[in-house]
Amino acid sequence: MIRKYRTTDTDAIVRAYYNASKLAHPFLTEEFLQKVMCDIPELYLPNTETWIAEEEGAVAGFLSLMGNEVAALFLEPDYHGKGIGRALMDKAVLEKGDLEVVVFKENAIGRAFYDRYGFKKIDEFPFEETGDLCFRMAFKAA
Q1: CA triplet 80, 85, 86: central angle to 5 degrees?
Q2: Domain named N-acetyltransferase: which ranges (predicted)?
Q3: How many domains does the chain have?
Q4: CATH classification at residue 99
């Protein structure tokens, strides 16, 4: 089930971010991950439109939008490969139409997902906080 974020989801969202990031972003430092975990409830959630994927009452993952940009898409690793990321992205397309996303070049899991979904690379640049190379990708809704 895809539903709107509730404040009671915050701890599960932070956990999903951390667990997914450890898998997809092994190049990021623990210090950086901890900073983002603090920023999620304070900065990101209040300023995004966030959707939750719920499976049997548990938060399987989430997607946050800032306008038409996918600001975050993270799933608990046990839920990868089950169509949940696609369901969240389908919801984002339904809500916003054309989308953009920024993904780390070294994030093979995320890049493969966005490629399969139909996103195309439109730019690349270093991420200001870490210096890691990022790709900006765009999706054109039908």
Answers
A1: 125
A2: 1-142
A3: 1
A4: 3.40.630.30
Secondary structure of the chain in HEC code, one letter for each residue: CEEECCHHHHHHHHHHHHHHHHHHCCCCCHHHHHHHHHHHHHHHHHHCEEEEEEECCEEEEEEEEECCEEEEEEECHHHCCCCHHHHHHHHHHHHHCCEEEEEECCCHHHHHHHHHHCCEEEEEEECCCCCCEEEEEEECCC
In angstroms, the CA 122 to CA 103 distance is: 12
**For residue 48, is pLDDT > 90?**
yes
Domain with 89 in it: 2-139
pLDDT at 142: 82
Structure tokens at 33: 């991950």
